[in-house]
Please model this.
Amino acid sequence: MALKWIGGHSSSILCLNVNSEGLVASGAERGELTLWDGGGTPTGQLQLPEADDVTSVVFSPCCPTRLYTSHGETISLLDIRSLKEPVECFHVNEEEINCLSVNETDNFLAAADDSGAIKVIDLENKKVTRSLRHSNICSSVAFRPQRPQSLVSCGLDMQVMLWNLQKARPLWTTNLQECEPQDNGPQSAGQFFNPPLAHSLSVASCGNLFGCGAQDGKVRIFRVTGVKFERELEFQGHSLGVSQVLFMPGAYWLLTGGNDGKVLLWDVNSDVGKQLKSPAKSLQRRKAHGPASTRKDGKLNKVASNEHTRVLPKVTIEHGEKVNWIACAEIKGSKRVLVADQSSSVSVYPLPEQ
Model:
């Protein structure tokens, strides 16, 4: 049974984030923002101006009292010690923002929006330093740990992109639809009706491995090698779209949330962790498959389909409601997954020890 945190919102909760001290922020429809202590008691509430939905909340990795929030086309910086007027506001996006990400040195903030744009703000100089772009709604963006100038993004154009802030064009792009196996007729037909629109991204603590959740119910794991990335693993995660993916800190455990009302925990380490220990050999092995991209893709698809049969979740949580957001927190010495859905409460579930 889930523990419910109540009393913080009157509208559907859209996003969650946890700071280094265990304080939780939640954003909801109609401009509602709430802070919670680890016991689930609201410790602060704020009504953001214009009553625009709060679509993303992100704490600074360097300063746990700094909270970045997106509402409508606006980004507000808040000081949670005095939850009143925003300390600073940025109006750089032209359409509603879907996702914020701040790099680990807290000097760049990326904001992905409905126009497909990713505005990257230099937080020291308080100006846009890069404007990156997808051809459709950009649903998720994430800076890579240990690489403060590098980020990944995905969108409803079915594209996953790797960027470096020194360049305006992506270093590498993968179209999820083109990744599909060519020899699987029914699956290809299914893709026509349920294309892999990409909804969510999360990068593991190592900075080289990242997961992507899509509308086709699949989770894809990619590995960055230099200025490109390759697919390591693909598996059917949910019976409906995957709305959220989240690598747990310091591990290769991946949490996923879906429109099917399930929250699943996957031990990605058991499938790709062995290769992490010898990336040079792994890279040489790929190069040995030759330059023909179709052959290389075929090999990757073959691996993916083999994995498909044996990748099973470590934990299945039957949440029962479409998942809007998931976060991981340590509460009283134990890991917990926090789930936001269509309701005005936060659901809290225990997780096994790693």
Q: What stands out?
A: Confidence is low (pLDDT under 50) at residues 183-191, 273-309. The longest helix spans residues 293-310.
